[in-house]
Specification:
Number of domains: 2
Radius of gyration: 22 Å
Mean pLDDT: 90
Order of helices and strands: HEHEEHEHEHHEHEHEHEHEHEEH
Low-confidence stretches: 1-23, 212-225
């Protein structure tokens, strides 16, 4: 086990330091530095499409492909597997797979969140983790803007009036009068900011570090023409100010030890009266008992919840019964393009692995994302 950990550390140094070594091939034991074998657990669909498998094989010629069920059961031996494309797999099933794959060096998570991949066993082995950062940003941002528009233009109430066959015009809010607060300014948060500012919203944000590119974003001096111009970007200490001034608070932060339960009783009490919470990140960012109380008693106006601590949300959950809550079944990420982008990103990293180049979207195990 110690030997595997040292090997993982060597792979990490080669792949994330960004310094090319004299080697022309990657760390894989297969032809040309490719992995000997690749394990695939289901991502986004129950089965891989034939074209997905063809693209994966073309990116790592000669590699044996092993399929793994959601329970962690493999259809072939795992002893020579070096790479895992990890989709639906619990932390327990993942750890069982690790124990049967002594040569596993690199795991690519098909989700942006990696809390189920950064297990103690994976950390001890020094396994390199990459994630799907950027794959889901656009559909999630469009979902958020859809909900902001729906609430601002009072769509739920209008649909209720339609069901009641009642003709009663309602006054809505223009988005140029709306402040959107984004908690977490990663790829999803930036995509939300880009769309929100294009609709005229004022956008403020908090992130783990307020310096660097976040400051540039606030000043409108970002890396590209599409960089959103934000009214303010600050560190976590500015969360109370964001909550107090935002009409919509969008949670787009990763789930880590620091962010778990970050929205609790005190934070909900600090929200602007009538404001809405939009959670497209992880359910465990929020104290759900405190949220239920705040939704019933205020000061917040409502919530759009696409993710929960326990999923699927059971039918008896009180969230279904609240008129000021919009519940969706963890679907904000979904679009007809995400599977193609997911496989494309994995194949790009497979090519980089085989050629000894740095992988993209490498996760910092200390930060948790």
């Amino acid at each position: 086990m110690a030997r595997a950990g040292h090997a993982g550390a060597r792979v990490r140094r080669r792949m994330i330091d960004g310094v090319r070594t004299p080697r022309t091939a990657g760390p894989g034991a297969g032809p040309g530095g490719a992995p000997l074998a690749i394990a695939l657990s289901p991502i986004l669909a129950a089965r891989y499409r034939a074209l997905d498998l063809d693209r994966i094989r073309a990116s790592a010629p000669g590699a044996r492909v092993v399929t793994v069920s959601v329970e962690g059961l493999a259809d072939a031996p795992l002893d020579d597997v070096e790479v895992l494309l990890r989709g639906w797999l619990s932390a327990e099933a993942f750890d069982r797979l690790l124990a049967r794959a002594p040569r596993l060096r690199w795991v690519h998570s098909a989700s942006a969140g990696v809390e189920r991949a950064l297990t103690p066993a994976a950390r001890d082995r020094g396994i390199v983790i990459t994630n799907a950062r950027g794959v889901f940003s656009r559909p999630i941002a469009e979902y958020v803007l859809m909900m902001i528009l729906a609430v601002s233009r009072r769509l739920p109430q209008l649909l209720e009036l339609q069901r009641e066959r009642t003709w009663q015009p309602l006054e809505g809010a223009e988005l140029r009068d709306v402040t959107v607060g984004i908690v977490g300014l990663g790829s999803i948060g930036r995509a939300v900011a880009t769309l929100a500012t294009s609709f005229g919203c004022r956008v403020v944000a908090t992130r783990r570090r307020a310096e660097g590119d976040a400051t540039a974003a606030a000043n409108g001096n970002g890396a590209g023409a599409d960089e959103p111009r934000l009214a303010r970007v600050a560190g976590p200490e500015a969360l109370p100010d964001l909550l107090a001034e935002s009409d919509f608070v969008v949670l787009a932060a990763p789930l880590t030890r620091e962010t778990q339960g970050m929205i609790g009783r005190e934070e909900l009490a600090a929200m602007k009266p009538g404001s809405w919470l939009v959670n497209v990140a992880r359910g465990r960012l929020v104290d759900e008992r405190a949220l239920l109380r705040a939704l019933r008693e205020g000061p917040m106006g409502g919530a759009v919840l696409d993710t929960f601590a326990d999923e699927p949300l059971p039918p008896q959950s009180p969230f279904y019964d609240l008129s000021n809550v919009i519940v969706t079944p963890h679907t904000s990420w979904s679009s007809g393009r995400v599977l193609d982008r997911s496989v494309e990103l994995f194949c790009e990293n497979l090519r980089r692995y085989a050629s000894g180049e740095p992988l993209v979207n490498v996760v910092d195990p200390n930060a948790g994302y």
